[in-house]
Design goal:
Elements: H1 22-34, H2 39-46, H3 50-60, E1 97-100, E2 106-109, H4 115-126
Antiparallel strand pairs: 1-2
Helix pairs in contact: 1-2, 1-3
């Protein structure tokens, strides 16, 4: 024999990886769902990383998105102002009114002009 006989030797490796049953995983995921403060705190309590806990949650819900506790959608009532009455396009053309002001200024308007706006414009141009 040229070397030591290794046929009687066994190689033993320590498995540091912890195995979790489906029931244990479900219980930890449920605990994290009830814990409103921190998923990381639940993970530390059980000696696992938060990413593992999130992975278990995805696996146990078949990839469905699970809303965080207290994050259900809320609806806020919204009141919108009534739309302004749109001016219908005029099919028949009204005549144009030309107003000559003091100093030779002229203002031309048609029948769709708002009378209050016209009064303001005239007052400004007249210097009132």
């Amino acid at each position: 024999m040229s070397g030591p006989d290794t046929s009687d030797r066994f190689i033993i490796t320590a498995d540091t990886r912890r195995r979790w049953s489906a029931e244990e995983k479900r219980a930890i995921v449920d605990e994290a769902a009830r814990e409103s403060r921190s998923v990381s705190r639940v993970a530390r309590r059980h000696g696992i990383s938060p990413s593992l806990l999130f992975r278990w949650r995805r696996e146990l819900t078949d990839g469905d998105r699970v809303p965080a506790p207290g994050s259900e959608p809320t609806f806020i009532p919204v009141a919108l102002p009534a739309p302004a009455a749109a001016h219908a396009p005029q099919t028949d053309r009204c005549g144009i009114i030309e107003i000559e002001l003091v100093g030779g200024r002229r203002v031309r308007v048609d029948g769709s002009v708002d009378i209050h706006v016209l009064k303001r414009v005239v007052n400004v141009l007249e210097g009132r």
